[in-house]
Amino acid sequence: MRYYIFILVILALTFNACNKKNQDATSGDTPVSDEFTPKGGDANLEDINDLDLPVSYDDMSYFSEASELAIEGDVDVLAFGSCNKHDLPQPLWGPILATKPDAWIWLGDAVYGDSPERDVLKAKFDAQNENIGYQKLKKMSHVLGTWDDHDYGKNDGTKLFEGKEVAKDVFLEFLEVPDNHPTRKRDGIYQAYTMGDGEKKVKIILLDTRTFRDKVSRDDQKVYIPDPEADILGEAQWKWLAGELKNNDAAITIIANGTQVISRFHRFEKWGNYPKSRKRLFKMIKTFCPSGAILISGDRHHAEFSRVNIPETKHPLYEFTSSGMTHTRKFPRPEVNKFRVGKKVDKLNFGVIRINWNANPVKVTMEIKGEGNKVLESCEFDVVK
Ligand SMILES: [Fe+2]
Predict the structure, then answer these.
(1) Tens-place pLDDT, residues 333-357
(2) What is the pLDDT of residues 295-313, one digit of tens each?
(3) How do beta strands 77-81 and 103-107 pair?
(4) In DSSP terms, which residues pair with 107 in a beta bridge?
(5) Residue 298 belongs to a domain with what CATH number?
(6) What is the CA(54)–ligand 1 centre distance, in A?
(7) Residue 133 structural domain
(8) How far is the CA of 176 from the centre of ligand 1 (A)?
(9) Which of 63, 151, 208, 385 could lock onto 190 through a cystine, CB 3.0 to 4.6 A?
């Protein structure tokens, strides 16, 4: 009997330790359940209907001028990733190099800086720059990026983070963004680029979802409570985004940020905690119908595809979430995502977007790739105009 009690105690202790590790591996910090069911009806109807906004799109004062920068070269393959600890093994650079991306996009947590101190942050970015695989990638591809919380300097950090100016300097230096870049002259780090010309133009919009992010409260179980009034982009960035989407003749438009947009049935950080902002983004996409629009995001320590149908766009709007270049959950749990297409991937991963310009209509293939350059999950859509 004593033996069995001993075994039970050991099992209970092990379970606790595992749970603690799971908490550490995510951007939240309390277990209970990963799922969170917001009040409301059917996901798709509620998310896509009623996209009214208090702004008229005929009001030209609403738009900032587009400030996109052209990058040389065509683009057939884009790759991106997030959640990368500079001091853990980084086994994905080999597969990323083998994929030969025309551009690499950091989508948050390029390092776990987690400090308002310039020296601490810089040392971690410098360590990342020492990585041989990453050095090779920088020689082969254009490197772009935006940040999430840890490379911003604070776990779940918001506009209230006191280190954001320091973090901006250090992050833009890491990305080798030149001193005369438009993003240096305004608050935040949002940027837009185009690659390719004419029928093969791709626009990459990098949103900053940290610098202007309102703080949203959590309940006593540490579950975020969606705030109907909270904003995630800030008014200047909204106007800039409207300008970038309105003045856009690209065949493919990538809208990138660190935080998941479509999935909203989990308890962690998400655009779903900012329902007004989420609707506003959908409304902009519905209004301007950017050709070949794809959302890409990170943060979650797993990868997945989500999809909504906005009737005005000619193809479904996909969100491609890729996260966990150096770490994912050791003990992955199921998570409801009513918008998910295919399976949730819990292995180390990076994202690949392939554009087949020769197909008619142009075809986009999205691949979640892992160690050994294996395709772990994929989906595709036709860019119907
Ligand atoms: Fe992360």
Answers:
(1) 889 898 899 999 999 999 999 999 9
(2) 999 999 999 999 988 877 8
(3) parallel
(4) 146
(5) 3.60.21.70
(6) 34
(7) 2-382
(8) 22
(9) 208
Q: Is the pTM of the predicted complex or chain greater than 0.85?
A: yes
Place of tokens 């949203």: 216
Residue with token string 């320590």: 301
My answer on whether omega of the bond before 228 falls inside 30° of 0, hence cis, is no
Q: Is 20 or 191 the better-scoring residue by pLDDT?
A: 191
Query: Cα of 152 to ligand 1 centre, how many Å?
Result: 11
Provide DSSP, 197-255.
-GGG-EEEEE---STTPPP--B-TT--B---TT--SS-HHHHHHHHHHHHS---SEEEE
Tally of domains in the chain = 1
Q: Tell me: pLDDT of 24 over 90.
A: no
Q: Which 3 state secondary structure label does DSSP give 279?
A: helix
> Does residue 147 contact residue 124 with C-beta atoms inside 8 Å?
no
Strands 191-195 and 303-308, how do they pair? unpaired
Question: What is the Å distance from ligand 1's center to 244 Cα?
Answer: 28
pLDDT value of residue 2: 55
Q: CA 259 to CA 108: how far, in whole Å?
A: 9
CA of 10 to the centre of ligand 1 (A): 31
State the pLDDT at residue 50: 54
Q: How far is the CA of 179 from the centre of ligand 1 (A)?
A: 28
CA dist 151 and 110 (Å) reads 6
